[in-house]
Backbone:
């Protein structure tokens, strides 16, 4: 949670000081009492506007420790990119919509939430939930795309391409909108580097730093897209960047749809792979009887293995790893630590902490220098 202490001269903010640390969700501590797969249900809630980025960063870290990064099925990686770019669109739409509302541009607010609603409908179609999905799992995905998902996404892309120019007409050239955004929130490149700023704030200062280009993951190096920048160093430039990033995200989504090939969405190692061919029963809960019969009818060993995997979880080799993704708000990193058990541990010594010990943070927004190429996690005070 962020608290801003402002000094105001009329309607002009002359000084702003920030206070942080008022909100503690307990996510890191809760992860220590859940299996690695169950951990996705917690990290997806770290930022409800960027659920898929939270899940991906966490899973990439777990997969590093497992040594299965190169074994993730191509289809799973493509769907991860597809969902992340849809998530970038929905996050930016909330930023533009709520920002417009604060500026008095209520039409932008209505349009932004209107378009975001279409994306939430796609989330619900694909994952079953509008928010907090736990869909991206260590080793792949919870399940494959449902029938009709590809067509629904294509229809959304066509609609969104028609809607995006409306934001230009309403805001980009609007003299009132520009007057309230230009030279506001000024932070130049030197300030960004000193504070470790990333994302649209950094790119509004002219530096095209984007982890999808500088440190690719999930196959981003194979996608054709641009990293927009501005030289305004202000809120107006950040608005323009987010608008252009939405256009670039639509380009990536279209490429994802073209790259989708039939195949598995979960790693082949049965010691790790959570069942990814699930189906709802007639009551809308659990698995269908056909799936249950398949598990129970294969062999007693298969049933025991399934039971142990779901209840106990898989073991992750001892060590620690850091994985970062380019979220809509900047670099988002997960520092995961294992003591060789079935659950994350809170100590960098890779031993299970005592109940009274204070855990190190594992899942945190990174503040590394944009020019740093070191994969090591950010230091913890």
Residues:
């Amino acid at each position: 949670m962020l608290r801003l202490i402002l000094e105001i001269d009329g309607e002009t903010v002359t000084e702003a000081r920030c206070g942080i640390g008022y909100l503690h969700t307990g996510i890191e501590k809760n992860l220590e009492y859940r299996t690695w797969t169950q951990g996705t249900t917690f990290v997806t809630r770290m930022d409800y506007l960027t659920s898929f980025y939270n899940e991906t960063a966490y899973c990439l870290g777990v997969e590093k420790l497992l040594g299965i990064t190169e074994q993730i099925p191509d289809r799973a990686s493509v769907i991860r990119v597809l969902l992340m770019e849809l998530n970038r669109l929905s996050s930016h739409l909330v930023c533009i919509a709520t920002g417009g509302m604060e500026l008095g541009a209520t039409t932008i607010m209505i349009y932004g939430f209107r378009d975001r609603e279409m994306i939430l409908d796609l989330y619900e179609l694909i994952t079953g939930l509008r928010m907090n999905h736990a869909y991206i799992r260590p080793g792949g995905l919870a399940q494959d795309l449902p029938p009709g998902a590809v067509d629904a996404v294509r229809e959304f892309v066509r609609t969104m391409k028609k809607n995006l120019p409306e934001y230009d007409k309403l805001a980009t050239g609007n003299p009132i909108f520009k007057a309230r955004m230009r030279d506001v929130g000024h932070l130049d490149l030197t300030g960004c580097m000193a504070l470790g700023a990333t994302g649209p704030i950094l790119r509004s200062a002219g530096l095209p730093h984007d982890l999808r280009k500088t440190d690719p993951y999930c196959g981003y190096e194979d996608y054709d897209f641009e990293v927009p920048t501005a030289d305004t160093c202000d809120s107006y430039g950040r608005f323009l960047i987010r608008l252009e990033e939405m256009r670039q995200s639509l380009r990536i989504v279209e490429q994802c749809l073209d790259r989708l090939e039939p195949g598995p969405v979960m790693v082949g190692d049965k010691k790790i792979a959570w069942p990814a061919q699930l189906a709802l029963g007639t009551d809308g809960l659990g698995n269908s009887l056909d799936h249950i019969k398949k598990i129970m009818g294969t062999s007693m060993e298969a049933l025991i293995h399934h039971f142990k995997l779901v209840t106990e979880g898989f073991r992750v080799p001892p060590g620690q790893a850091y994985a970062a993704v380019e979220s809509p708000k900047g670099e988002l990193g997960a520092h995961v630590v294992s003591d060789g058990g079935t659950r994350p541990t809170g100590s960098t010594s890779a031993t299970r902490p005592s109940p009274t010990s204070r855990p190190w943070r594992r899942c945190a927004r990174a503040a590394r220098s944009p020019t740093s190429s070191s994969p090591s996690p950010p230091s913890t005070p």
